[in-house]
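Re: weekly structure request thread

Next one in the queue (517 aa):
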Amino acid sequence: MSRQIMSVVGGKEAASTATYDSTNPARPAEVVARVGLADAATFAAACRAAAEAQREWAKVPAPVRGRVIASIGRLVEANAEALARLVTEEIGKPYAEALGEVREIVDTCDFFLGEGRRLYGQTVPSEMPDKNLFTFRNPVGVAAVITAGNFPVAVPSWYLVPALLCGNAVVWKPAEYAAASAHAMFELFTAAGLPDGVLNVLFADGAETFAGLERALGEGTVHKVGFTGSSEVGRRVGELTGRHLQSACLELGGKNPMVIMPDADLDLAAEGALFSGFGTAGQRCTSLGTAIVHESVHDAFVERLVRALSAATVGDPAGDVLAGPLLDRKFADRYEEYLTWIQPHHTVVSGPVGRITKDNPRGGFDGGEGLYYHPVVVDGVRPGDRLFMEETFGPIVGVTTFRTLDEAVELANLPGYGLSSSIYTSDARNAFRFREGVSAGMVSVNNSTSGAEAHLPFGGNGKSGNGSRQSGMWVLDQFTRWQAMNWDHSGRLQKAQMDVAEIVPDLDFRLAETRLP
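Done, posted below.
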């Protein structure tokens, strides 16, 4: 029997104006949750409720808020398997990866629970006597957080945990197709003792969300927007927040390059390409887009990658598989459009393309009604091809060649994204030259393009984001505002830059000239 899920605003279920069925992509006829969708007015009301609750939450001492974050981590850890199974059921992520995703929440909590005691400001020396200068981190207020469903619990934690720790309230709008996972995570967070209204979860479609966000920004009840999703929608969110003199925290898509140098360990490189290109069925923002391979090792690398891919299992995400189904019907439809970008000058070296069925099988596996698709390697991709220039959210990887490292860096930067990148080489000079030249916010050496750790900054540049960073101490700048204070205890008005004591040097002084004997 499917779950019935509603938005929760101020600790109470909110009315819905429509419903959405979140289905299991491995068995699309199976409804995981029937989701009540809210409208723009409810979104705006949630932001007002959050603003009211935030005033009291900000007064809770930061170390106490840190203990709440610690409790969230322990609750998630105790419920890790149940939450991971729900993620697998709802979006088709292989169970081992789902467990890793849940672990990311725990790691994030473990990092930030101590930050409640380290929201440091500074004392700064003044240019005047009897005057002290200070800086403080203050919460921004209400954060509206909008997240995608390919990482339905890990990525939201990158926003929710630091935002709450810093004394903000949150209105969280998860993806509808991952609503059950999001609601379960919301329940774990609130079980840690968060007061009503400090964390609100709101389910709505894109149009109502955007309209509600626009209304809330106009009312002044949203002070920070976090968005994870496509570059196209990210631009609209950035434009909207910019009109209200805000900067959004944008984590967008990627066309992530992997450069294979002549001195690379080709077996290791093929393993990295397999995982980053086809793990989670290629539905990560950090998934491999194009393998940029030196012409001298092109054939050997492609042979290894295709062999590894042929041996990999695509199937039931509850089992030991490389990839399960695509997330949702809309992503399957979009992926089929990407397959039309394969041109006559391309060579598909991986075998069949399209949906896995009895008539289009993969290694004896019958995909049945599940949204399973053949992983595809397309060789001969050229700069300017859509397969080279645009994000392809699904199990498809392009391959092209280069002659010099400078050419490889140019190819890596050409699509205009800047999220993640990778280089395989045994020469440190190559690694550092690539790091200096590539536009990506994240660089891996002899590792895949995918993978994040809770204490490193995560984020991209160009079409992958606006330079904001998540995770680690860097994300604190997204959810706090610096406040400067000066305290003059001289008993008189001292004017900065005007009443400053001056010590006059003798700049004409010269040492007496001496002669050597």
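The chain has 15 helices and 20 strands. The two ends are 103 Å apart (CA to CA).
Next request, please.
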